[in-house]
Amino acid sequence: MRLAPLENTATWIDEFLAARKLEIPDGRALYAYRCKSEEFETLIQTLKQASPVSAQIGPIAARAFVFYAAEWWQRRFDGRRWAWEPLLTSISWEVAHYPDLYEPIKAAWGWWSIDLVRLPGSVRYLGTFACQGGLPLALIDKSDNRVTKYLRAVLAHMAAYRQFVEDPIDLARDQQHLLTPPTLRRDYVFRLAADLIEAILNLREDIGEDGNEDVLSLLDRKRPEWRRTMPLALEDTRAVRMLKGLLKEAVHSRSSLSSEFSVERFLRRTDAGWRLGARVRLPASFPTEELARQLKIPTQALPPRLEMRLQGARVRVAGFYIQQSNQFQLAQDTRKSVELWDSEACGEIVLRCLAGGEIGEPIIPRRGSALGALPWAFRSADDGSFIGEGSVSNRAPEIIVLVPDGCTFECLDSSNVLPVLPNKTPAIEPEQVHALNRTIRSIAEPTAIHTDSGCCVIRPSETHAVDLEYRLSGKRFYDIESASALFLETPVLRVARTGQTAQKVPDDEVSWRKTGTGWQSTPDTFGLWDVRHLKDGQLCYLDRVGLLPPQFDLKIDPGTDMTQGHLVLIQAGNIRVVGSGQDSELSVEALRVGGDTRVHVITRNGAAPPTQVALRLHWSSGSVLAVQVPFPGRGGRFLREGARSNVTLPLMIFMVCVRWHSRRIPVRPSGSRASLRRLIWVSCFESRTFAYLCASPV
C-alpha cells in the first residue's frame, strides 16, 4: 500500500533517528547526525510528494524540511546569493509568501532542539539552515581556493587572539576580506568558520607534532566523539583533505602557519633587561617554481641542493634544502628557525641562497623588512609578539610599545585629548631599553604618540583588528651595504592585509623628505630619503632608504697585491667620494673618468687590509649616503663575477673545535672558483684544540 505524503515524511524521520539509535533528536547540530547520501536522496523524493498546499506546511513536513535545508546548504550551495528560491525549487515547492513558513519552521527547530540564529531585531532562518548544515562542500573543492585561504587566516587569527574575545565569530569576521564572492560575507558563514576553527584548535593537543597522515584515526581513538563537533561532511574526500591540512597547521600554529620564509619578532624580559628577538622561520618544504620566482631565476637553474644563509654582521647558515620532485625539502636535523637578538633583530633580515656560489637574488622573508623610526608595538601577553609599528589597532587589552627618544604622549577619548593614562598605573613603568636606545611603555587606552614625522595612534581593545605588512617594492642594489635599503629607482610603497596580495598605497598618502628639508610628494635627487604613509592624520609607516642612479653599478679592479686596488662606481652621476674619516689606516682617492668614478683605496704603513671600506657618497644636490664596499685588494672579497654577486676568499680562517687523538686532517672546502686552491691542516691534540691554515694564493 502506498503511503500518504505525511506518512512518508514521518517514516523517513523515524527511520533516520532509529539508524542512530535515537527515538527523538538529542539536540546536536544537524550536521552532526551525518546524513548519508542515500538518505538525502530519499528525503528529496519524500519532500517533493509533501509539497504544501497554499503555503500551509504541516509540523511533520516542517521538521523534515529544516533538516533538508541544512543538508542542501552543505551539499549544493555554490557560493551564490543564499535565498529561499533555489532551496524550495529543488524540491518543487511553490511558496509565494515566504513569511508563511516562519511559524512552522520555528516549531520544527524547537522539535530538533535547535536555537535559531538571531541578530538584533530579527531572526535569521536561512542563516540557521547554514549554521546547522556545516561548511558547503562546493566551496572547498580545491585546496588553494579562497575559502581555504580564509580558514587558514582565521586559524592564525584565533590562535593569537582567542583569549581577548568573548565570541570567536568576531575574529572570523576580521578576515572577511579574504572571502569571495562577497555573497559569503555573512554572519552565518563567519559562525561556521569560527565553530570549525575552534573545534580544530581544541583538538590540536591530541595530535602528534608531525601531524601524521592517520590523524583522523588518532582522534577517533583519543576522542571518540570529536566528529560531532566538526561542521564538515567527513565522508567527503574534499572535506577530509582540508581538515587534515588545517589540523596540521593548528599543531604548528606556534611555529609556522605558511609555506614561506617568514620572520616573527617578539619582546622578552630577561635577567639582563628587555630584549627584542626575531625568529626566522624556514618552511619544511617549498615549491620549486615559487623558489625560482623569489630568486628571480629560471626553474632549471636551481641546483638539487641549496644552502640558506642569513646575511648580517655575522653570516650564519639557516638551513639546507634538497630537491624532491617539485618541492625543496628541508634536510633532516636542520633547524626550522634561527633566532636573532637586539640590533640584528630589528634590522632588515635577508636570506641568501648558495650552492657553491650565490644563486639568484637575495630573499626578504615575509615581515623581514627592517623596523623603522616609529614606535614598535607588541602584545602584552606571555608571548610578547610583534603587532606593528606606527599607528596600530589590536584586540589585546594592553599593548607594550618601544618608543624612540623625543616622543610625547596624549591619552585619547571620543571627545577630547587628556594627559597620558590618567588615574592609571601602567603594568610596565617607563624603562630604558639600552640595547635599542628606546623606552618601553605599557598602553591600555587609546593613546597618541607624537613624533617629529607625525602622530601615531595606539588603540588597544579594538573590536576589529587588521594585520598589515608594509614593503617598499623596486629594483634593489645589494652589492654594497648601507644602514638603509638601496634602490636603483624610486620604490613604490605597498601594503598587504593578511592573506591578500599587496596593494599600492595611494600616491597622495605617501610623502618623502631629505635630511633637513620638508616633506614632498616625490624624491627629486639621489641619496638618503625618509618615506612615510600618512592617512587620515595618522602616521602608519616611516622608513629611510638610499636612492642610487638607475644605471649605477659597482666594479672591482684589484690591485697588484693585497694592500690596494680600485673601486669603479659606474654611472654614479655627479658624485664626490670620500672615506668615512674613521679609519686612519686607509687612504681613499676618487677620480672622475668619463661617466664613472674610480676610487683608489690603499692601506697605510703596511696595515693589514680590511674586509670592507666605509665611504660617503656626496651628490651635487647636497645628498649624502654612507655605504660600505668590499676592499679591492688582490685576493680580497670580490662581489662581481660577470653579472652575479659572489664571494671569494683566497685566505680563509676556520676555527675548528675537535677533541680527538693527535692527527692531521686535510680539509678541501669547495670554493666559488675552480682555480682557488686551499688546504687546511687542522692539528688536534687530546684535551686541547687549535687550528692553523696553509693557503695558496689565486
Beta strand count = 42
Helix content: 10-25%
Alpha carbon gap, first and last residue: 101 Å
Query: Which residues form runs of ≥5 with pLDDT under 50?
Result: 414-427, 638-698
Helices, by number, come to: 13
- In order across it, which strands form the biggest sheet? 5-8-7-6-10-11
Strand percentage lies at: 25-35%
Shape: elongated
SS class: alpha+beta
Rg over CA atoms, rounded to whole Å, is 32 Å
- Overall pLDDT: 78
Major sheet? 6 strands, antiparallel
Q: What's the structural blueprint in terms of helices and strands?
A:
Blueprint: H1 5-18, H2 37-49, H3 59-76, H4 84-89, H5 102-111, E1 117-119, E2 122-124, H6 125-133, H7 146-161, H8 169-174, H9 187-203, H10 215-222, H11 237-251, E3 262-270, E4 273-281, E5 285-287, H12 288-295, E6 305-311, E7 316-324, E8 327-330, E9 337-341, H13 343-346, E10 350-355, E11 357-363, E12 376-379, E13 386-389, E14 392-393, E15 399-404, E16 408-412, E17 417-418, E18 431-433, E19 438-443, E20 447-451, E21 454-459, E22 468-473, E23 485-487, E24 492-497, E25 503-504, E26 510-514, E27 519-520, E28 527-535, E29 538-547, E30 553-558, E31 564-570, E32 575-579, E33 586-593, E34 596-603, E35 612-619, E36 624-630, E37 640-641, E38 644-645, E39 663-667, E40 678-685, E41 688-689, E42 692-695
Parallel strand pairs: 14-21, 23-29
Antiparallel strand pairs: 1-2, 3-4, 4-9, 5-8, 6-7, 6-10, 7-8, 10-11, 12-13, 12-15, 15-19, 16-17, 16-20, 18-19, 20-21, 22-24, 24-25, 26-27, 26-28, 28-29, 30-31, 31-34, 32-35, 33-34, 35-36, 37-38, 39-40, 40-41, 40-42
Helix pairs in contact: 1-2, 1-3, 2-3, 3-5, 3-6, 6-9, 7-9, 7-11, 9-11
